[in-house]
Amino acid sequence: MPVTARRTTLTRAVSSTVSTDRPTGRTLAKHRRTSKPGTPRAAAAVLSVGLAVGGGAALSLSTTPATASAATMTAAQQRGHTSVPSRPLLRFRDSGPTVKYVQRALHLGPDGYFGSSTVRVLKKFQASWGLKATGYMDKKTWGRLTWAAKHKVLYGKYGTTSSSATKGTTAFRTKVLREAAALKGTPYRYGGTSRSGFDCSGYTGFVYKVAGHKLPRTARQQYGATKHISRSAAKPGDLVFFRNSGGGVYHVGIYAGGNTLWHASKPGRPVAKAKIWTSSVAFGRV
Protein backbone atom coordinates (compact mmCIF):
# COMPACT_ATOMS: atom_id res chain seq x y z
CA MET A 1 0.00 0.00 0.00
CA PRO A 2 2.67 2.59 0.70
CA VAL A 3 4.35 1.80 -2.68
CA THR A 4 1.08 2.23 -4.59
CA ALA A 5 0.39 5.54 -2.95
CA ARG A 6 3.78 6.84 -3.86
CA ARG A 7 3.35 5.84 -7.54
CA THR A 8 -0.04 7.54 -7.66
CA THR A 9 1.36 10.73 -6.21
CA LEU A 10 4.26 10.77 -8.68
CA THR A 11 1.93 10.22 -11.64
CA ARG A 12 -0.30 13.09 -10.56
CA ALA A 13 2.74 15.40 -10.13
CA VAL A 14 4.02 14.69 -13.65
CA SER A 15 0.57 15.12 -15.18
CA SER A 16 0.10 18.41 -13.35
CA THR A 17 3.44 19.76 -14.62
CA VAL A 18 2.76 18.89 -18.26
CA SER A 19 -0.75 20.29 -18.29
CA THR A 20 0.28 23.64 -16.76
CA ASP A 21 3.30 24.20 -19.08
CA ARG A 22 1.51 23.53 -22.37
CA PRO A 23 0.19 26.71 -24.11
CA THR A 24 -3.54 26.84 -24.48
CA GLY A 25 -6.15 29.05 -26.11
CA ARG A 26 -4.78 32.37 -27.50
CA THR A 27 -1.33 31.55 -26.12
CA LEU A 28 -1.10 28.58 -28.51
CA ALA A 29 -2.28 30.70 -31.44
CA LYS A 30 0.73 32.96 -31.09
CA HIS A 31 2.99 30.07 -32.09
CA ARG A 32 1.05 29.07 -35.18
CA ARG A 33 2.30 30.12 -38.64
CA THR A 34 -0.22 31.67 -40.98
CA SER A 35 -1.10 29.68 -44.06
CA LYS A 36 -0.68 32.72 -46.41
CA PRO A 37 2.13 35.30 -46.41
CA GLY A 38 1.08 38.72 -45.19
CA THR A 39 1.08 41.86 -47.30
CA PRO A 40 4.47 43.68 -47.00
CA ARG A 41 4.17 46.62 -44.69
CA ALA A 42 6.72 48.62 -46.74
CA ALA A 43 4.48 48.90 -49.85
CA ALA A 44 3.98 52.40 -51.31
CA ALA A 45 1.13 54.20 -49.61
CA VAL A 46 -1.75 55.29 -51.78
CA LEU A 47 -4.18 57.72 -50.28
CA SER A 48 -7.55 58.22 -51.89
CA VAL A 49 -9.69 60.98 -50.59
CA GLY A 50 -13.21 61.62 -51.86
CA LEU A 51 -14.08 65.26 -51.77
CA ALA A 52 -17.31 66.91 -52.78
CA VAL A 53 -15.97 69.51 -55.22
CA GLY A 54 -18.61 71.05 -57.45
CA GLY A 55 -20.48 67.96 -58.59
CA GLY A 56 -18.79 65.66 -56.09
CA ALA A 57 -15.49 64.95 -57.89
CA ALA A 58 -13.04 62.60 -56.15
CA LEU A 59 -9.40 63.61 -55.49
CA SER A 60 -6.83 60.82 -55.50
CA LEU A 61 -3.39 61.43 -54.00
CA SER A 62 -0.62 58.93 -54.59
CA THR A 63 2.68 59.09 -52.71
CA THR A 64 5.40 57.02 -54.36
CA PRO A 65 9.20 57.44 -54.44
CA ALA A 66 9.17 58.23 -58.20
CA THR A 67 6.59 60.97 -57.81
CA ALA A 68 8.48 62.50 -54.91
CA SER A 69 11.77 62.48 -56.88
CA ALA A 70 10.22 64.13 -59.93
CA ALA A 71 8.60 66.74 -57.74
CA THR A 72 11.99 67.89 -56.44
CA MET A 73 13.30 68.58 -59.96
CA THR A 74 12.86 71.84 -61.79
CA ALA A 75 11.54 71.81 -65.36
CA ALA A 76 15.09 72.47 -66.62
CA GLN A 77 16.41 69.45 -64.71
CA GLN A 78 13.57 67.21 -65.90
CA ARG A 79 14.37 68.05 -69.53
CA GLY A 80 18.06 67.46 -68.91
CA HIS A 81 17.34 64.01 -67.46
CA THR A 82 15.06 62.89 -70.31
CA SER A 83 16.43 59.96 -72.33
CA VAL A 84 18.42 60.70 -75.50
CA PRO A 85 16.25 58.46 -77.80
CA SER A 86 13.20 60.59 -76.96
CA ARG A 87 15.00 63.62 -78.49
CA PRO A 88 13.80 66.13 -75.86
CA LEU A 89 13.64 69.85 -76.49
CA LEU A 90 16.66 71.22 -74.62
CA ARG A 91 17.26 74.90 -74.09
CA PHE A 92 19.44 77.46 -72.35
CA ARG A 93 20.05 76.69 -68.61
CA ASP A 94 18.85 73.08 -68.77
CA SER A 95 21.03 70.61 -66.88
CA GLY A 96 21.53 66.86 -66.65
CA PRO A 97 23.15 63.83 -68.33
CA THR A 98 21.36 64.42 -71.64
CA VAL A 99 22.99 67.86 -71.85
CA LYS A 100 26.35 66.12 -71.34
CA TYR A 101 25.60 63.90 -74.36
CA VAL A 102 24.97 66.99 -76.50
CA GLN A 103 28.18 68.62 -75.29
CA ARG A 104 30.28 65.54 -76.06
CA ALA A 105 28.77 65.35 -79.54
CA LEU A 106 29.68 69.03 -80.05
CA HIS A 107 33.24 68.37 -78.83
CA LEU A 108 32.73 70.51 -75.73
CA GLY A 109 33.83 69.87 -72.17
CA PRO A 110 30.78 68.02 -70.73
CA ASP A 111 29.75 69.81 -67.54
CA GLY A 112 26.04 69.01 -67.94
CA TYR A 113 24.92 72.66 -68.04
CA PHE A 114 23.38 74.16 -71.19
CA GLY A 115 25.24 77.44 -70.99
CA SER A 116 26.14 80.18 -73.44
CA SER A 117 29.12 78.26 -74.86
CA THR A 118 26.86 75.29 -75.68
CA VAL A 119 24.34 77.61 -77.34
CA ARG A 120 27.07 79.25 -79.41
CA VAL A 121 28.60 75.99 -80.68
CA LEU A 122 25.16 74.47 -81.31
CA LYS A 123 24.21 77.46 -83.47
CA LYS A 124 27.37 76.94 -85.50
CA PHE A 125 26.56 73.23 -85.84
CA GLN A 126 22.99 73.92 -86.98
CA ALA A 127 24.09 76.49 -89.56
CA SER A 128 26.69 74.10 -90.96
CA TRP A 129 23.95 71.55 -91.74
CA GLY A 130 21.50 74.05 -93.17
CA LEU A 131 19.28 74.03 -90.10
CA LYS A 132 17.78 77.08 -88.43
CA ALA A 133 20.43 78.35 -86.00
CA THR A 134 18.33 78.66 -82.86
CA GLY A 135 20.85 77.36 -80.31
CA TYR A 136 18.16 74.99 -78.97
CA MET A 137 17.79 71.24 -79.42
CA ASP A 138 14.78 70.37 -81.57
CA LYS A 139 13.83 67.15 -83.36
CA LYS A 140 15.69 67.96 -86.59
CA THR A 141 18.82 68.99 -84.71
CA TRP A 142 18.69 65.77 -82.67
CA GLY A 143 18.54 63.70 -85.83
CA ARG A 144 21.52 65.45 -87.37
CA LEU A 145 23.54 65.49 -84.13
CA THR A 146 23.12 61.76 -83.44
CA TRP A 147 24.08 60.99 -87.03
CA ALA A 148 27.15 63.24 -86.79
CA ALA A 149 28.20 61.65 -83.47
CA LYS A 150 27.83 58.15 -84.94
CA HIS A 151 29.93 59.00 -88.00
CA LYS A 152 32.45 61.06 -85.99
CA VAL A 153 31.93 64.31 -87.88
CA LEU A 154 30.81 67.67 -86.60
CA TYR A 155 30.20 70.41 -89.14
CA GLY A 156 28.44 69.95 -92.47
CA LYS A 157 29.11 71.30 -95.95
CA TYR A 158 27.36 74.58 -95.18
CA GLY A 159 29.97 75.25 -92.50
CA THR A 160 32.99 75.45 -94.81
CA THR A 161 35.08 78.44 -93.91
CA SER A 162 35.04 81.26 -96.42
CA SER A 163 38.12 83.30 -97.29
CA SER A 164 36.77 86.32 -95.41
CA ALA A 165 36.19 84.22 -92.29
CA THR A 166 39.70 82.82 -92.59
CA LYS A 167 41.13 86.32 -92.76
CA GLY A 168 39.12 87.31 -89.70
CA THR A 169 40.38 84.31 -87.73
CA THR A 170 43.97 85.04 -88.70
CA ALA A 171 43.61 88.68 -87.71
CA PHE A 172 42.18 87.64 -84.34
CA ARG A 173 45.06 85.29 -83.58
CA THR A 174 47.53 87.97 -84.60
CA LYS A 175 45.95 90.35 -82.07
CA VAL A 176 46.10 87.64 -79.40
CA LEU A 177 49.81 87.04 -79.93
CA ARG A 178 50.60 90.76 -80.06
CA GLU A 179 48.80 91.45 -76.76
CA ALA A 180 50.26 88.34 -75.12
CA ALA A 181 53.78 89.52 -75.90
CA ALA A 182 53.01 93.12 -74.83
CA LEU A 183 52.21 91.88 -71.31
CA LYS A 184 55.58 90.19 -70.86
CA GLY A 185 56.97 90.88 -67.40
CA THR A 186 53.60 91.51 -65.71
CA PRO A 187 53.82 90.01 -62.19
CA TYR A 188 51.91 86.92 -61.16
CA ARG A 189 49.05 87.61 -58.76
CA TYR A 190 46.60 84.97 -57.58
CA GLY A 191 43.12 85.92 -58.79
CA GLY A 192 44.59 88.75 -60.87
CA THR A 193 42.78 89.84 -64.02
CA SER A 194 44.40 93.22 -64.79
CA ARG A 195 47.73 94.69 -65.87
CA SER A 196 48.73 95.01 -62.22
CA GLY A 197 48.95 91.22 -61.99
CA PHE A 198 47.55 88.00 -63.50
CA ASP A 199 46.99 84.38 -62.67
CA CYS A 200 46.94 81.93 -65.60
CA SER A 201 43.28 82.20 -66.63
CA GLY A 202 43.16 85.90 -65.73
CA TYR A 203 45.96 86.43 -68.25
CA THR A 204 44.38 84.45 -71.10
CA GLY A 205 40.98 86.02 -70.43
CA PHE A 206 42.44 89.55 -70.51
CA VAL A 207 44.36 88.91 -73.74
CA TYR A 208 41.36 87.43 -75.51
CA LYS A 209 39.10 90.24 -74.35
CA VAL A 210 41.46 92.84 -75.81
CA ALA A 211 41.58 90.84 -79.06
CA GLY A 212 37.78 90.83 -79.21
CA HIS A 213 36.51 87.65 -77.55
CA LYS A 214 35.31 87.20 -73.97
CA LEU A 215 36.28 84.01 -72.13
CA PRO A 216 34.92 82.57 -68.86
CA ARG A 217 36.95 83.18 -65.71
CA THR A 218 38.65 79.87 -64.79
CA ALA A 219 40.90 77.54 -66.80
CA ARG A 220 38.35 74.76 -66.52
CA GLN A 221 35.53 77.00 -67.75
CA GLN A 222 37.67 78.26 -70.61
CA TYR A 223 38.34 74.65 -71.62
CA GLY A 224 34.61 74.01 -71.73
CA ALA A 225 34.00 77.13 -73.83
CA THR A 226 36.39 76.21 -76.65
CA LYS A 227 36.34 73.83 -79.58
CA HIS A 228 38.84 71.06 -78.83
CA ILE A 229 41.40 70.47 -81.54
CA SER A 230 44.40 68.18 -81.98
CA ARG A 231 47.95 69.28 -81.32
CA SER A 232 48.77 69.05 -85.03
CA ALA A 233 45.82 71.35 -85.86
CA ALA A 234 46.71 73.96 -83.22
CA LYS A 235 47.90 77.37 -84.43
CA PRO A 236 49.65 80.21 -82.60
CA GLY A 237 47.01 82.17 -80.73
CA ASP A 238 44.97 79.12 -79.72
CA LEU A 239 44.67 78.14 -76.07
CA VAL A 240 46.70 75.30 -74.54
CA PHE A 241 45.35 73.54 -71.43
CA PHE A 242 47.35 71.45 -68.99
CA ARG A 243 45.69 68.38 -67.51
CA ASN A 244 46.41 66.27 -64.43
CA SER A 245 46.35 62.46 -64.24
CA GLY A 246 42.60 62.49 -63.62
CA GLY A 247 41.92 64.57 -66.73
CA GLY A 248 41.15 67.80 -64.87
CA VAL A 249 42.41 71.13 -66.21
CA TYR A 250 44.76 72.97 -63.84
CA HIS A 251 46.58 75.52 -66.06
CA VAL A 252 46.08 77.45 -69.31
CA GLY A 253 48.28 79.52 -71.60
CA ILE A 254 48.39 80.92 -75.14
CA TYR A 255 50.02 78.71 -77.74
CA ALA A 256 52.93 80.49 -79.42
CA GLY A 257 53.90 77.73 -81.88
CA GLY A 258 56.95 75.46 -81.89
CA ASN A 259 56.07 73.76 -78.56
CA THR A 260 56.04 77.12 -76.72
CA LEU A 261 53.40 79.24 -74.99
CA TRP A 262 52.81 82.57 -73.31
CA HIS A 263 51.55 82.20 -69.75
CA ALA A 264 51.40 83.45 -66.17
CA SER A 265 52.90 80.44 -64.45
CA LYS A 266 53.16 80.86 -60.67
CA PRO A 267 54.00 83.30 -57.84
CA GLY A 268 57.42 84.88 -58.25
CA ARG A 269 57.47 84.39 -62.02
CA PRO A 270 56.08 87.12 -64.28
CA VAL A 271 54.31 86.59 -67.60
CA ALA A 272 56.79 85.02 -70.02
CA LYS A 273 57.20 82.79 -73.01
CA ALA A 274 58.22 79.21 -72.16
CA LYS A 275 58.41 75.69 -73.47
CA ILE A 276 55.50 73.28 -73.05
CA TRP A 277 56.96 70.90 -70.50
CA THR A 278 54.52 67.97 -70.70
CA SER A 279 52.56 65.93 -73.21
CA SER A 280 49.43 66.03 -71.01
CA VAL A 281 47.96 69.03 -72.79
CA ALA A 282 44.88 69.81 -74.86
CA PHE A 283 44.28 72.62 -77.32
CA GLY A 284 41.21 74.78 -77.71
CA ARG A 285 40.00 77.33 -80.26
CA VAL A 286 37.21 79.90 -80.02
Automatic annotation (TrEMBL):
Domain NlpC/P60, first and last residues per copy: 170-286
The UniProt record lists the keyword Kinase: no
Annotated segments matching region Disordered: 1-39
Keywords: Hydrolase, Protease, Thiol protease
The keyword Isomerase appears for this protein: no
Pfam families for the chain: NLPC_P60 (PF00877), PG_binding_1 (PF01471)
Compositional bias (Low complexity): 1-20
PROSITE patterns: NLPC_P60
Protein family per UniProt: Belongs to the peptidase C40 family.
Protein name: NlpC/P60 domain-containing protein
Organism this protein belongs to: Kribbella hippodromi
Organism taxonomic ancestry: Bacteria, Bacillati, Actinomycetota, Actinomycetes, Propionibacteriales
